[in-house]
Amino acid sequence: MEQLKVIVVGAGMGGLTTALALRQAGFTVEVYDRVPELRPAGAGVSLWSNGVKVLNRLGLGPRIAAAGGQMQRVSYRASDGRVLCDFSLEPLIERVGQRPYPVARTDLQQLLLDAVGAEHVTLRANCVHVEQDAASATAVFEDGRRATGDLVVAADGTHSVLRGSVLGRLATRRYAGYVNWNGLVPQDPELGPATTWAIYVGQHQRASLMPVGGGRFYFFFDVPLAAGLSWNPGDTRAELARHFAGWALPIQRLIQRIDPHTTNRIEIHDVDPLERLVNGRVALLGDAAHTTTPDLGQGGCQAMEDAWVLANTLLTTNIGVEDALGRYEAARLPRTTEVVQRARARADMTHGIDPAKTRAWYEELEREDGSRILQAIGNTILAGPLG
User: Fold this and answer.
1) How far apart are CA 233 and CA 56, in angstroms?
2) How far is residue 199's CA from residue 75's CA, in Å, rounded to a whole number?
3) pLDDT 10s digits, 65-88
4) Which terminal residue of the chain has fewer beta carbons within 10 Å of its beta carbon, N or C?
């Protein structure tokens, strides 16, 4: 297609990956975000091989390998520390052709921002709606500024303002029933091996340690709780100690080592799969298009897949922008719908929505040698656009 100008609203993981892919395709790209500075939500990203493959294709392979953690094994443990199953990731890596690289969000965002160029990103630009006609699309900002291009990519996150411009309706976020605390701590053998993703399960709760770059663990805790409960960051250790009383010693040590003021507390939500991702010259991307629970670790990876597919549909048609965006929607809608639905089902199973199913899952883990888990992860990876 002829030289295009693309307006990207949102400078998160999806927006920056999209900007990079489109610039490498030869298009002019402007990125806008409402925030005064880029501070990513959440501490870590479980970047599985399908996301890494996109970054490889964009020339960032060596940088993500250096920034990511060397995760070699997965270990499921009961709340008392007893090993339920423990297995190597090597069969998965051999099958899909790429190692995963769990990474700190700030490291990933900086890597993407460096590749895009900070000069192409405008902050303090709060986009409130989009206008379009037969030849262009315009992002309209709260302060009256306007940015016009051949298309607008709405990558403005789970609370997307522009989602309604595509759907013609509001899409309500759904509380998934649990609260997640997450952050980063220095690696230490007293917490667990530096190359193992450890997941402790019990009482419909989870506690996890995943290696990321810089000699750190990304940790998270999940607890089923009512939405809207008050929270004081200074009480974080005491609250987690209460929820995880009696759990294994590494979890007790972890609770004492976290920094309460850099620990995130998030009420986990998703959005029912959308019926469309495109309206004319406006396309939804990333969390704006498919907000999912983190239970498959695919949120960031799906945004990266979106970016790659969008750039290629724009490159591989000369019929027009709307045709290319229709092809993007046709490719991405079934894929992301399945991921959202599977993540929701796994969240329900993990967090005791049906206690009998959660109990059966715990029992299944004790009989697991890793093969079924690796098969499921591999199937998800290989269903992506880069195989």
Assistant:
1) 38
2) 6
3) 999 999 999 999 999 999 999 999
4) C
Cβ(102)–Cβ(44) under 8 Å?
A: yes
Which tokens in the block code for residue 385?
A: 């656009």
Comparing CA positions, the residue from 130, 134, 136, 165 lying closest to residue 150 is 136
Residue 196: both structure tokens together: 């193992």
Ordered structural domains, the chain, with CATH: 5-69+102-173+272-352 (3.50.50.60)
Phi-psi region of 246 (alpha: psi -120 to 50; beta: other; left: phi over 0): left
**Dist CA 78 CA 88 (whole Å):** 19
Token couple for 24: 């490498």
For the chain, counts of helices (H) and of strands (E)? 12, 18
Q: Is residue 178 exposed (0-12), middle (13-18) or buried (19+ Cβ within 10 Å)?
A: buried
Q: Which of 321, 292, 327 is nearest to 309 (CA)?
A: 327
> pLDDT for 89-119, tens place per residue?
999 999 999 999 999 999 999 999 999 999 9
- The single-letter code of the amino acid at 181 is W
Average pLDDT, the chain: 96
> Average pLDDT, stretch 222-237?
94
pLDDT at 279 over 80: yes
Handedness of CA 376, 377, 379, 383 (dihedral sign): positive
E-strand ranges in 236-321 read 264-271, 278-279, 282-284
Identify which of 174, 271, 175, 260 has the alpha carbon closest to the alpha carbon of residue 221: 260
